[in-house]
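=== RUN LOG ===
request id: a7f3
mode: sequence -> structure
chains: 1
length: 402
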Amino acid sequence: MTEANQSIAIENLTHEEAIARANALVPKIRERAPFTEANRMQPKETIQELKEAGLIRLLQPKRWGGHELGPETLFRTGIEIAKADPSAGWCYVLLVLHSWMLASFPEEAQKEIWGADPNATMSSSFTQTPNNTAVKVDGGFIVNGEWGYSSGIDHCDWALILGTVYPKAPEDKHEYYMMAIPKSDFEVLAKWKTVAQRGTGSNNILLNDVFVPAHRTIDMIPWCQSGDGPGHALNTNKLYRVPLYATLPMGLTTATLGASLGAYDLWVDGLRNKNTLRGSKIAEFTHQQIRVAEVAGKLEAAEALMEKTLRQITDADAINLYEKMKLRRNYGIIARMCNEAVKTIADNAGAAMIYETNPLQRYWRDVQVSSMHYTFNMDWLGEMFGKLELGVPLSEKDLLMA
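=== RESULT ===
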C-alpha cells in the first residue's frame, strides 16, 4: 500500500453509477442556469454537489481517492451536465481533466495537492500575455504576468498555467512548462465580461514574483508529443499515458456537443406545442420537419464520431503523431457540426428566441463561442493533418501543439 492510499478512502464508483449521479444533479443545475449566467461563474452549490457526488474524481488515480474511470465516463456524464447548462458542462469537464493532468506531474506535487485534499479543484490557463516571464532559478522558477481564459478559476484551489522560458542565446530553444500554482499565490482579475459562456467565469489571473518549485512543474514537450510525464512511475494505468492534446480537447468537445443536444431538446419540445399567430401548428409545417431531420442527423453523426474517437483513445496502447492528429481533426469536425446544427436551430426557432427569458438563446450563444475555441480551429488542424496525410513534415511549431 502506498503512502497515498494509506489515509484516503477509495470509493469504487462505476461507469453506470457516475452517469446516474450526473443525472441526479441535472434539475438543480438547470434551475440555477439563469443565476449562473447573471453572476458570470458557477454557483458554489453546483461545485459542492459535483464534489460530493465524486464526479470530479472520475479520472483521478485510485491511489489518491479517484476512480480511474475512462474517457467514455467523462463523455457520458459531461453530456448530461452540459445539456442542463452549457457553462456548467464546460467547467465540469475541465475540473475532471485537470485532475487527469495532475496525475502526470511529479509525485511530490500530487502529494502536496491531493494529500491535503483529494477533492482539490484546479483551473488552467494556456494563454499568456506578451510580457509574461518564467525565469529559471535554483530549485524552480520565478513567474510574473497575466494569464487569461482560466475557466472556473473562482471556484478552484489551484491553477495550472503554461509558462514559457525564453532562450538566453540564439542557439537555445524555448522551454515550455505547465506549472501548478496555489490560489494564495495569484490574484483573480474579474475580466470575464462576455456575450457567451458567461457562467464559465473564465477570468484572468495575475502573478507577481511567484516562486514555483520544480516539483510543481512538468515539461510540456514530452507530455504533448508522446504522453510522457514523471507521474507515470506510480500512476501506471495507460489512461495517463495519452498525449496531452489528444485528451484535453475531448472535454471541450463533450461540453460543446452536450450543449448542442440540449439546444435540440429545447427546440423540438417547443415545436411540438407551438402555433403560429393564426393558429396553425408549427409541427405540421414540412420545412420544420425537414430541419428537425437535418439537425438530428448531424448531431447523431457528431456523437458517433465522438464515440469512435473515444474508442481510439481507450483501446490504444500508444498514440503516434498521425493517430493524434486524427483525434485532433475529429474534435474540430465535431465542433463544426455542432455549430452548424445549432445555427440551423436558431435560424428556425422564431422571433421568440431573442428574449433573455428563453433559454434557447443562451445555448445558441454558448455553442457558437465554444466552437470558436482555438483547439477546434480547422484551418490549423486541417493543415497539420493534411501535411501528415500527404507526407509533408510538420514544423517545429506544429510539433509542440499537435
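=== NOTES ===
The mean pLDDT is 93.
The domain at 122-219 is CATH 2.40.110.10 (Butyryl-CoA Dehydrogenase, subunit A; domain 2).
=== END ===
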